[in-house]
Amino acid sequence: MRKLLVALVLVAGFAGLAGVGALTALLAGSGGRGQGWSECSADLGPWGDAAGRGESDASTLSAESVEIAKRIIEIGKERGLPPRAWQIAIQAGKTESNLKNVFHGDRDSLGIFQMRPSMGWGSESQVTDVDYAINKFYDVLLEVPGWEEMRPGTAAQRVERSGYPLRYHKWEPMAAHLVSVEGQVSGFSGCEDLPSASVLAGNAIGYAHAQLGKPYVWGAAGPDTFDCSGLTQMAWNAAGVKIPKHSQTQYDQGGVHVPLSQAQPGDLVFWGHGRDPQSVHHVALYLGDNEVLHAPQPGESVERTKMWDGGELLPMVVRPAPDMPGTAAALPPAGAGR
Prior knowledge:
By secondary structure, the protein is an alpha+beta fold. Helices cover 31% and strands 9% of the residues. It contains 10 helices and 6 strands. Keywords: Hydrolase, Protease, Thiol protease.
């Protein structure tokens, strides 16, 4: 296998962006309080690659998508909603429909936000009316307790209630870029003292290293014994990032999918029968330099070893995504609001 070349990446700023218009500043949380991840500008998000990505992602939008993003901002302004609400709506729309007013979807899902008439979102003609759909999204968002303090993707999930709650974070840089460009939002980062993605990953790796030599026990998650997913879960928990138990669930919902060739230390590496993402049976913590740390199998102990393939190594890794350090977001049941 080709050796992976990785490095810990310090999160960079969103300086000097242009594109859809002149970028004035990035959207940030309200001031006057201690800053958390949910109050940071998008460039300080967990992936370490947001510098320039907002502009790049925005440049791929179709004319229809740009107009819908503009309309989301216009209606938000008309209703006197803060820029964070506009960003949340844009991230939700991009995730659900690529910011297009579509007339198809899962079951009876329709429109920009894939609202389901059968779940009380409105009639088919209503949820496919752009202005109605945007206003309805804002109506439901305003009913979410504490939405202003959440990371935008988390707030989008509270409205959409997707079975894949972390996917809304992917479009955070793009949404922040569009909001700042179209909304002329003056902002600040205010988050320079928060741990970067590399620091969080380093904390997870440090915890896992401290478990070397502890025996494998199926279903165990410490402190004295671990199985594979118990080790990775508790390692990231020690970094203040909550991820689910079980290797399959960690692959599906543990964070953002990244190509294996772009793996960074702290990412979760998976094995599945025939490289099938639906047949995941093992997970390990990537260390860099083609090494992993894992709890192998019964009769063995937590160890550090070279990464192997065996025809089962999945081509995507998972990068856990924090909302706020040390807190776990309580997610509603999947599909409850759809």
